Amino acid sequence: MDQFTINLLFVGASFALYIGIAIWARAGSTSEFYAAGRGVHPVTNGMATAADWMSAASFISMAGLIAFTGYDNSTYLMGWTGGYVLLALLLAPYLRKFGKYTVSEFIGDRFYSQTARIVAVVCLIVASVTYVIGQMTGVGVAFGRFLEVDNTTGLLIGAAVVFAYAVFGGMKGVTYTQVAQYVVLIMAYTIPAIFISLQLTGNPIPALGLFGDHAASGEPLLAKLDAIVKELGFNEYTAHHGDTFNMLLFTLSLMIGTAGLPHVIMRFFTVPKVSDARWSAGWALVFIALLYLTAPAVGAMARLNISEMMWPNGGIEGGAVTLEQIENDERYDWMDTWQKTGLLGWEDKNGDGAIQYYNDGNAELQAMAAEKGWAGNELTNFNRDILVLANPEIANLPGWVIGLVAAGGLAAALSTAAGLLLAISSAVSHDLIKGAINPQISEKGELLSARIAMAVAIVVATYLGLNPPGFAAQTVALAFGLAAASIFPALMMGIFSTKVNNSGAVAGMLAGLVVTLVYIFLHKGWFFIPDTNSFSDADPLLGTIKSTSFGAVGAAVNFAVAYVVSGMTKPTPVHIQELVESVRVPRGAGAAQDH
Amino acid sequence: MAENSSNSAYWSANVRIILISLVIWALVSFGFGILLRPMLSGIAVGGTDLGFWFAQQGSIIVFLILIFNYAWRMNKLDREHGVDEE
């Protein structure tokens, strides 16, 4: 059986499973569509949250970004897990106690203002659509590889599948489907990592193998990796090279953003009790940590494997891989398959029949190149987003592992895209149309408008996904910055302060969203349209703060503006102060409104 | 008003637990993982140093402990102050 058939089998079987579950648990009423009738156990909910959360960015993109940068991209690991601490301590139990379906309902009621609710909806939509763009990038990579077509075709097919999938059911269908997706994606992520860790270090647990010894040389794996990448003129893997201040801000943005994203917060509305909301956040992080503790091992080991493949005879001295090897040696088949997607490329610039892979921006290596007659780095294109999907092929793992990884990558992208589309559609139909524009809308009309909103969101995201502002995880990081700057501060102040009032919250959210959005557009192009940017992340507008790190600054602006404006306007009425007091204690959660 | 004063004791106990947890949260990630890494560079861990381990694994493990510890302590605190869900 050839690899294409195996992939098709694995992907087909996993899809049949998800769709079967979605039909079995089909959402009937509006309340089931949004919040699954509040009957989900914390462990189940944690697993579904993990699937919802771990998207194309975590599964497909993150290890690739770590692999090619090393220590400096630890930001993704700390940022995307540390946010759960904020979520569990600062938001989840109180929002569950408040007991409504959507984040904007809380903001609308707490800040006793229809305007606040609408502003929150706008913030949610902006952050979620940006997030879906990142997902579509990942979907394009996964479908492109698995159907063996170019990236654009893969993206268009993937968009159609995501849409069909998301309209199938609401949260209830999605919750149990996502448990299945979690199982598929975590197996797909860890099984190849276990194989590779065994090959390289003899340790079956990748997280331990990373800090273990490289079996072939007897040296510690990370020391070996540092030596190889240094020889090729790249930055040492474990060392810190970037700007420390930017690294801090970026980590903080990802953390705050995690606690401000609607599709994750919504999950905590679906547990039966306040105490369960606390446990749920912990369980979610347990299931997420299984992947996040494996990811740095995947990145480091893949970088080592790739470097050794390009210099197969023991470093530069032994000579580069030859074109003939790439064509005929079956260990290099992955290069041919990935070249078809347009995401991997090489060119024998000096015509010596070999492909030299090195950092041609490094002065020492430039000197060596001049001496040896190299004409620049010849591995001309290595898209970071292909690393995880290509990894089992690079390590020559059996065909079924490659098929499993294809299914896992699609599960990751689909589950998150579906969760986000659900958050967008509920924001539009429930908060915007039913809550503000037409309160008399029928249940049927509400469901219809939810689906139309999904369709529009996916068309916009697909269009922008064709020319994404970065690799999947980088685009997703921008979405986190937007959520960090707008939603999280409003939620936190709504719970921890009785003083912040309607005008303060509205002004804070608008200020946070606008400064962050403008900062991102100035660096990534207006509305992410290429070449409309005035600055670049290599030389940012403010000091060393890159556009991906600006969310933390936006959040600070939000807090400051909200406090100042609240101080200058009418204090919060007594009944709202009582509402805040009641949100703070768990007792009475069962009596929360279930409209 | 008796209930209110008990609620405010409950709330300040909660805020205290949150603050302590967040100090540890910041220490392991921003501290050990980034800012204090140079100071920890003398402690070797598998081919690199302790700061690298905290940045890539240690902080995640501490985050997990923090959340479960918070859930456990708060559920206990709820009962002590009689504000748990019956």
Automatic annotation (TrEMBL), chain A:
Localization in the cell:
Membrane
| Descriptive protein name | Cation acetate symporter
Taxonomy-wise, where does this protein's organism fall, top ranks first?
Answer: Bacteria, Pseudomonadati, Pseudomonadota, Alphaproteobacteria, Rhodobacterales
The record lists the membrane-crossing segments as 6-25, 77-95, 116-133, 153-170, 182-200, 247-269, 281-302, 400-428, 448-466, 472-492, 504-522, 542-565
- Supply the alphabetized keyword list: Cell membrane, Ion transport, Membrane, Sodium, Sodium transport, Symport, Transmembrane, Transmembrane helix, Transport
Q: Which organism is it from?
A: Aliiroseovarius zhejiangensis
Domain of life, per lineage: Bacteria
Report the membrane topology from the UniProt record. Multi-pass membrane protein
Q: Which family does it belong to?
A: Belongs to the sodium:solute symporter (SSF) (TC 2.A.21) family.
From TrEMBL, chain B:
Q: Does the keyword Isomerase apply?
A: no
Span of domain Sodium symporter small subunit = 8-84
| Pfam families, per database record | DUF4212
Identify the InterPro entries for this entry: Na_symporter_ssu
* UniProt KW Ligase keyword: no
TM ranges? 17-40, 52-72
Q: Mind listing the UniProt keywords for this protein, alphabetically?
A: Membrane, Transmembrane, Transmembrane helix
Question: What is the protein name for this chain?
Answer: Membrane protein
Native organism is Aliiroseovarius zhejiangensis
